Amino acid sequence: xxxxxxxxxxxxxxLPGKWFIGDMGSDAYEFIDFLNESGLKxxxxxxxxxxxxxxxxxxxxxxxxxxxxxINIPKLVEMGFLLESDISNxxxxxxxxxxxxKAEELKQPFLKKAFENFKNMDESNKWDCYRFCDSQSYxxxxxxxxxxxxxxxxxxxxxxxxxxxxxxxxxxxxxxxAELGEEVYLNKFIQYLYFKQIKELKDYANKKSVKLIGxxxxxxxxxxxxxxxxxxxxHLDENKERTVVxxxxxxxxxxxxxxxxxxxxxWSSMKSDDYLWWRFRFESLMLQTDLIRLDHFRGFEAxxxxxxxxxxxxxxxxxxxxxxxxxxILQKYFNKLPIIAEDLGVxxxxxxxLRDSFGFPGMKILQFAFGDSPRNPFLLHNHTYNxxxxxxxxxxxxxxxxxxxxxxxxxxxxxxxxxYCILDExxxxxxxxxxxxxSVAKTAIIPMQDFLNLxxxxxxxxxxxxxxxxxxxxxxxxxKTLSNKIYKSxxxxxxx
Length: 496
Fold this sequence. Notes:
It is built from 19 helices and 12 strands. It is α/β, with parallel strands linked by helices. The strands form 2 sheets. Strands 9-6-3-2-1-12-11-10 form an 8-stranded parallel beta sheet.
């Protein structure tokens, strides 16, 4: 019999806690215990990089660096980098939403204090950090000086720096590396702490029979260490201006498409060294997680290219991506690729063929299933075993929010839903969760908001809105009653 299992979608920032944001401390370990007791085998998180505009984890200043806000300060005492007395007087309070700015203001002095203590340690106690930095030198050296320069220039984007720095003049960069030596070293040390804590969290999860699912955004921010230091990997002109940018074409949801603005890859340049940048990217995330959700998978088969001068995505064109060659090369280096293909959007036969040729499971979203025809690929009778089924993702309404909106504004969705599943109108979210669990898909992933029966006040992200996103935070750990309820449903649908 084929194995079936289930998991939960919850970003690290959404864990409860009193440091203004969820992090990799005791709440993360308690959450893993909850998953284990519930019979859930996967914990899916969002990208863990340093957030960009609007706190989006999909717009980071580095494709590699971990978010320092996820470092748990009390754990630095356990790690020997702080004393208990260093944190004994800190004033903490429970917050109902994540506050990235206050979390940074609170945590940064402790990270700097840990760094000062680290510098005064015997050399024998520093080797672990040295080894880490050496193993990650491909990206961490450039990231550390980039972050130091960005702080020096009050956050100004690299393309507004003075000419020699903007153009990554080697001699000038080395001069700045010497001048800003302490800040550069601090940035490396913070990354060491982040990677050490997330590796320990992953190890604990694995001991509890839980696997972590990470997330790789397909594109990177223009204002990033990667574009600045490795501009030859992107379509930029001689002034390092973007010539073409990423987006998606006009569709049912938008007459002008979506203009994301990310610089597009120079795939021929990337291919010349067997996609080294991408190989390091996968390697870095595989230190942190067990599986990888590959964002905007269709962009590897063909992507929407828009001239940088355009104000909308209308006047773009489809351009062939690296396709089979990319994954064949990666497979040569990694043998097995633990990839989940985010295959949502405009999916063609060519995209499906690429996905299926490498055996990558795709995604099925139940909120997209109703109000259409019986051929809708998101309806359960059209699911396949090698796929991951969700009630919704971080970009969707919560299931309760979706149901309430449909009941008010789209009677056909409600009619189709009632015809398709046994719907308890007193607890519609759980009825829909159990419908998802009944799918033939090998894995079912449920956002934590749905398990908690929360409405759209707890939605994580509304695409196209620049503010008010990525802030939802659990107010407390889930209880035994919920873990028992989940366990019984998983048994009922043979997902234990």
